[in-house]
Amino acid sequence: RELYARDLVPVVRFAPDWGDRRVRNQSDPGSDGLRYTALAASYVAIVRGLPIPEGRRFYVEVHNEPNLCYEWSCARGRFEDDRIPSERIALEYASMLRDVADALHALGDPRVHVVNAGLAPGGVRSCECVGPGEGAFEAGNTSADFLRQMAAGVPGVFDRIDAFASHAYPAEGEFDVTIFDAWVP
Q1: Quick check: 112 pLDDT over 50?
Q2: Secondary structure element (H or E) that encloses residue 122, with its range
Q3: Which of 45, 78, 97, 115 lies most in the core, judged by the most C-beta atoms within 10 Å?
Q4: pLDDT tens, residue by residue, 14-59
Q5: Are 85 and 126 in contact (CB under 8 A)?
């Protein structure tokens, strides 16, 4: 209410409970990290309870920097060599984004808009599966690499969002703006 009273447009990041970095464990049982309909339903319940005034906008940013091991960790024993590759992380996050976006859009509320998670400019090629926020990682992906992996894993995923979030702070690597040619008319 305070934000709207000040004529601001809220952009609120939704994510699992604080300290729970095993987001893939929030996926639907038996989906192996590829379906997030129960999590999406809980996000819808939160949005339904918000006091969004008529004619105003509310943006849901779905998660945060999933291209970092700290934000998308895995348990031992699931992946070869106990390492989750970036392509798999991108597939899982794109699946989460798809399911959450579809659920929020199914509300049919023109005030509610969906935004992807801002990515770390310098991401990982793989993460060691250990405790959340622990373990070794292989650096070397840019956010553009991760976006390509998301699009390859879940075709059309970027057609499901209403705006694009970016974490534009310095990091090693380059950003290739031509990555957006496929998504911008």
Answers
A1: yes
A2: strand 122-128
A3: 97
A4: 987 776 777 888 999 999 999 999 999 999 999 999 999 999 999 9
A5: yes
Closest Cα to residue 12, out of 23, 25, 3, 22? Answer: 3
Q: What are the angstrom distances between the C-alpha of 164 and each of 32, 67, 127, 130?
A: 27, 16, 25, 31
Question: What does the alpha-carbon distance between residue 173 and residue 180 come to, in Å, rounded to a whole number?
Answer: 17
* Maximum Cα–Cα distance across the chain: 53
Contact present, 12 and 61 (Cβ < 8 Å): yes
Q: What distance in Å separates the CA atoms of residue 1 and residue 162, rounded to the nearest whole number?
A: 23
Pick from 125, 122, 172: which is nearest to 144 by CA?
122
Task: State in Å, rounded, how far the first CA of the chain is from the last one.
Answer: 35
What length is written for the chain? 185
Give the helix ranges, DSSP H, for 30-182.
Answer: 37-48, 86-105, 143-153
What is the pTM assigned to this prediction?
0.90
The two three-digit tokens of residue 174, written as one number:
């380059």
Q: Smallest Cα–Cα separation from 118: which of 74, 62, 49?
A: 62
pLDDT at 175 over 90: no
Report helix, strand or coil for 113: strand
Asked whether residue 180 carries a pLDDT value surpassing 70, the answer given is no
| Kind and range of the H or E run holding 115 | strand 112-115
Q: Which residues pair with 115 in a beta bridge?
A: 61, 163
